[in-house]
Sequence to fold (216 residues):
Amino acid sequence: MRLLRLFILTTLLSGPVLADTAQTTKTETYDLLFRDGTLDDVSRDKSLVYDRHVSNRLLPDTATRDTGRIVLEFGGEDAGQANLKFRQDGKYRNLGSFPASVGNPIIMYFVETVVRDMAESAGGSPFYIRNRVKESLIRPAERHEEGDSVDVILRPFDGDPNAARMNGFGDLALTVTMSDEIPGWYRSLSASVPAPDGGAPIYSSTLSFDGMEDSE
Fold:
């Protein structure tokens, strides 16, 4: 439970038909999403790079602000820290530092940015939103498997009595795709709010693993 505790303390898809569909238990949801040791085999001389792409029909300008690249690099004593940076147009800003021994913090960044984006776009209390999302991380969830990948799909506001007042975000779905073949465990992390008319999503945020590069 170390990574989940750290998350609570510090922050707070289309594709082919998959071969197997099931429901996780509470423990399985947690164990998959917050897997320990996911950075242990990553060379400390390398950085993990993720592309972040955002679209938002409620606040279109945020797409430009938030679309860029997230870089995870190691530093600190004995390269024991995993440092996240946001890169855009040749500039960067620091996003935070986490113990590398715990696991890959990219999932914490992803969840917290979705919480922020929802509060900014739909209104409402960010504390309420964050608590509902956190609860969804430790309850049974939809699970799909194909080859070496596994998807876990969370619907934090399914059945929420306030869902109708969330400007569509009551239908928010978070999809995390993981694989042992991907350094750092996470192939992609996406959040989507479908449009009632079947058109482009009201909101979409996707972090996709883009490879490794030599650390600066």
